[in-house]
Give the backbone structure.
Amino acid sequence: MGQGLSCTSDREYQLFVPIRSGDTAAVWSLLESDGDAGLLRCTSGYDRQSALHIAAVNGWIEILCMLLDRSMNPDVLNRHKQTPLMLAAIHGKIACVQKLLQAGANVLMFDSINGRTCLHYAAYHGHSDCLQAIISVSRSSPIAASWGFARFVNVRDSKGATPLHLASCQRRPIAVQILLDNCALVCASTGRYGFPGSTPLHLAARAGSLDCIRKLLAWGADRVQRDSSGRIPYVVALKHRHPMCAALLNPAAAEPLVWPAPLKFISELNQDTKNLLERALMDANREREKNILKGTTHTSSSPSQFDVELDDNSSEISENELCCICFDQVCTIEVQDCGHQMCAQCTLALCCHNKPNPTTMCPVAPVCPFCRSIIAHLAVAQIKTYSNEEPEFILDASPSSKFSRLRKSLNFSEGSSSFKGLSAFGIMGGGRGSGRIAAEFDDKP
């Protein structure tokens, strides 16, 4: 035994010291002179870290590649059964994460500390690039075929916490958004993690994260779901002295607009269209938040996200250039195949206010308000932008295009001219409105 310890200490001095310092030349020389690959099997003292673990922790991608090129096992375990992929995810070393994934590292391995995977650690520490890389690989890996992609995204640690629970508790809004975009269960309850029976919304309320609360509510988190002691998130926020969070979570406050995830065509949107609708969703909910938070004495932790500076040229927008439902926003979304155009907020309102069929419990497909055809697909509208010198066709669906001189396509202006005199509230079917529409009718008896 003493001889083994001595050998381990000597090996650590020879190989691990240059790896920790990132001395690529020294590591290369040692590996070339190691005829029986004994150095690759060597581990450090108490933690039993391999050379691959140390390279991953420090982010030395060249050394990591050297070790993997010599057929070193990418899933080698340390004392706590952690893989190099887990340590790279913990420290946010995205290049090492990507290389280990390319080398076939198993994303579904659990450590012995908390029973967590690399996905748990990427979410906990908020390394969104590592989180996205792991999720992308898991979609096409054998894990998705055998275990199931949605099951992997909602995998639980030894205390019953999913990656979404960890991201919410640690105030990681970007990680929360990535997980919600990839089938994370927004209302899942924990086991022993945090307070038993907590949902991601309970944990975000406990941490006082307004950004996480906004995203969870926009994806359908239940404000009245109770933990094991019967507390709703509103009570948790009050107990931990987060009045802004409590105001948003108050069941008596207006309900937020929720992303219409069950609708099939929503899941098939291209990224540009989805970004427009998600931005409209958050903007509509921010308008709701402003009304709710008027009575609070504290200011928002991120006021810059609520402030929208209007361009001086906004007065140049003519009535014909605006959405014919709300008369407020520029048309950025086109309904296919009829070609009618609306602003993102009105499009989202149409999709959010459809209730499931009581017999089939399937969501009712929304219809175009101009021609009454079923909305089967949405795309970014092609908008004409005119300069003072030469007219050009420019595809511009960014928010700044609202303050440019825009003109809608001919088929929209002709097909919707008779729609201008109708009540926007009537179109929405009397349901909860969004943005300006909601503000106009909430105060009426």
Remarks:
- The beta strands are 333-336, 341-342, 377-380, 384-386, 391-393, 406-407.
- The first strand starts at residue 333 and ends at 336.
- The chain is about 45% helix and 5% strand.
